[in-house]
Amino acid sequence: MNHPRTATHPAEESNSTPLRLGLHANLAQFTLLVAVNALVGGMLGQERTVVPLLGEQVFHLTGYTAALTFIVAFGLTKAATNVVAGSLADRHGRKPVLVAGWLIGIPVPLLLIWAPSWGWIVAANVLLGVNQGLTWSTTVIMKIDLAGPTRRGLAMGLNEASGYLAVAGTALATGYLAATYGLRPTPFYLGIAFAALGLGLSTLRVRETLGHAQLEARDRNTSDNGPRGVLTAGLSTRQVFLLTSFRDRALSSVSQAGLVNNLNDGLAWGLFPILFASAGLSVSRIGVLAALYPAVWGAGQLVTGAASDRYGRKWLIVGGMLLQAAALVLFATATTFWPWAMAAVLLGAGTALVYPTLLAAIGDVAHPTWRARSIGVYRLWRDGGFAVGAVLSGILADSFGLRTAITVVAIITATSGLLVAVRMHETLHRTPPRPSNAEAAGNTSSQR
C-alpha cells in the first residue's frame, strides 16, 4: 500500500519476505495485534466495575481518597512503564517487550481473587500498571510501524477501539457476574483467560515490527518532503523528553491533553460506581453505566481515527475535550440512570474524538528513529493523569462532595481543550522543508 520496498527484517530473512508499509500489506499481523490489544483492554476492564465496590463493600474503606489508592498505584506505575517500554522497544525490539508485559500480567487476577487486604489490591494494580504500560504501549508502536505515514489515524482508531470495546465488554460482563455470583472470585476468571491468551498469541504468532520503523526512517531520510513540523533523527532520550513534554508546541499540547483526558477517566473509574451506588442503583445497572462510556469510546474511534486522517488532528482534539467537559457537568447534575446513561454516551464520544487523534499527532511529528520514545513520553504524561485524577478527585470529594469534584474536573477538561486551540498547530499537512538536526535539538521554539 505504502512505499513497497525490498528490505527484510533479520527475523524474516529465512524466507526473504520483503517488508512493506501499509495496512493492506500487513493486514494479517495488524489484525492479530488488534486482537491482542483487545485482550490487553480486557485485563483493565476486569476492574472497572468490581474493584471500586470491593473497596467499599468488602474492605470497608472510609474516605474517597483511600478508596482511590489502587488507581494512583496503577497510574503512576503505568506512566513510568510507558517511558521504559518506548526505550526498550527502540533498543531491543517490540516483541520482547510485549511478551514481558504479558508475563507480568499473569498474577493480577489471582491477586484480586485472593487478596486478604486492600494492600494486596494496590499491589495487583502495580503489576497491572506494568502490564498495561508494556503491552498497550507496544501494540500502539507496532501498529504505527506497520501502518506507515498515510493511515496513522485509522490504525490508532482500530487499536484503541479494540482495547476500549474490550474494557467495556469486560466491565459489563463482570458486573453481571458479580450480581449473580458475588464480587469474588468469578468476575476475575475472565482476567485469567485474557492473560493466558495474550501471552500465547504474543509469543507464538506476533512478529517483530522494528524493521518497518527502520524502513520508514530510510524512506523519510531520502525524501525531499516531510510532514509539517516533523523533527529529524539523531536525538537523545533527554531531547526527546523535553521536545515531547515542553518545547515542541504540537507534542507538548498533545501531552497535556492526554494527561487531562486520563485525569477525568481516573475520576470516572474510581468515583462513578460509588456515585451510582449512592443513588441506589443495583450492581448490574452500575455495570451497564461503567461499560457504556468505554463502549462508545471504543466504537467511536473506528470513525474518529480515520476522520483525523482526512480532516486533521487539532480540531478533533479541541472538540473532544470540550464535549467531555459538557458530559462531566451532566454527570455532576444528574441523579437517575437515564441522564447518567446520556452523560456516559457524551463522555465516550468526546474521548473517542481525542484518543486516537493524539497518538496519530505524535506519529506525524516524531521521527521514526525516536517515535517509540516520544510515544512513551506522551503516555507517561497521559497515564500520569490516572494518578492525578484519583488524588485530585478524591481530595475534592472528601472535602466538598462527589458532585463538586466532578464539576472541578469538568472545568479543567474545558481549559485543556482551549489550550490546544490556542497553542497547537495542525500536524497532518505536509510542507517542505524539514528542520535540520541542530534546529530540532536546539532551536525548536523558533520553528513554530
From TrEMBL:
Classification via Gene3D superfamilies: MFS general substrate transporter like domains
Protein keywords: Cell membrane, Membrane, Transmembrane, Transmembrane helix, Transport
Span of domain Major facilitator superfamily (MFS) profile: 21-428
UniProt xrefs under SUPFAM superfamilies: MFS general substrate transporter
Source taxon at top rank: Bacteria
This protein's name: MFS transporter
TM stretches of this protein: 21-44, 64-85, 97-115, 121-142, 163-182, 188-206, 266-294, 315-334, 340-359, 380-397, 403-422
Topological type in the membrane: Multi-pass membrane protein
Chain segments carrying region Disordered: 429-448
Location in the cell: Cell membrane
